[in-house]
Amino acid sequence: MIHLYNVTKIYPNGVQALRDISVKISKGEFVFLVGPSGAGKSTFIRLIFREELPTRGQILIGGRSIIRLKRSEIPILRRNIGVVFQDFRLLEDRTVFENVAFALEVLEYPRTEIRKRVMVALDMVGLGLKAKMFPHQLSGGEQQRVAIARAIVKNPRILVADEPTGNLDPMTSREIMDLLAEINKKGTTVIVATHDREIVDAFQKRVIALSQGRLVRDDVKGAYAL
Ligand SMILES: Nc1ncnc2c1ncn2[C@@H]1O[C@H](COP(=O)(O)OP(=O)(O)OP(=O)(O)O)[C@@H](O)[C@H]1O
User: What residues are paired with 3 via a beta bridge?
Assistant: First the structure.
């Protein structure tokens, strides 16, 4: 479903963030992306939802090159990819419901459809009763759940998460990762960039390790480090 062929990313300042990466991620997989700070994990994630373009190489999603997409085709790609960040990125002046609904409003879904889908997504993340609250009234873990609801409300085929537990305590981190695993069980391909050694070791999922922009390990059921 996601194929990277000889992907290199050099930023305009000359930093080589990814070097000749080739990897295939199949439909329905759960993949951890690990590696030290600066290894290229965020760059990998940003390439997948076309926030960045590779300098060299090819990226196919569902058999189609995402590099050659026309500007008008980018929203179609993004509809199929949910994204979750470390810092939640919620709109502070909007309620939980409105934050999640926003993802569908920009795609011009009908109002009744939005209402239905948002409540399903909020129930899925366990926040059905907090729809009217504002982000600052929620814990960090709850705010991340809202961000996850916002990412999945479009029913994307792929969910990418960049350090989703980076701001959370160990117990909350575990709950958030359990939620991502549950979403994966329903068929969504999930890619999580993380530093969280304990979680990676506990989950026994595929581990792709990057170091200085190179793919240094790809284990079917791996641990954080060898
Ligand atoms: N927009 C950018 N412009 C220039 N250099 C960048 C940019 N984004 C990242 N880099 C550089 O590319 C390299 C890889 O960064 P990246 O953020 O992908 O790594 P990472 O593994 O996600 O690190 P971290 O765990 O600290 O988030 C680093 O040397 C970083 O400084």
Answer: 24, 60
Please give the chain's pLDDT, 226 residues, in tens: 999 999 999 999 999 999 999 999 999 999 999 999 999 999 999 999 999 999 999 999 999 999 989 988 988 898 999 999 999 999 999 999 999 999 999 988 999 999 999 999 999 999 999 999 999 999 999 999 999 999 999 999 999 999 999 999 999 999 999 999 999 999 999 999 999 999 999 999 999 999 999 999 999 988 888 7
| 188 alpha carbon – ligand 1 mean position (Å) | 26
Residue whose CA is closest, atom 25 of ligand 1? 37
Buried-state track 152-176, b at ≥16 Cβ within 10 A, e below 16: bbbebbbbbbbbbbebbeeebbbeb
ipTM of the complex: 0.96
User: Domain segments of the chain: what residues?
Assistant: 93-155
Q: Is the CB of 156 under 6 A from ligand 1?
A: no
Atom in ligand 1 nearest the alpha carbon of residue 45: 18
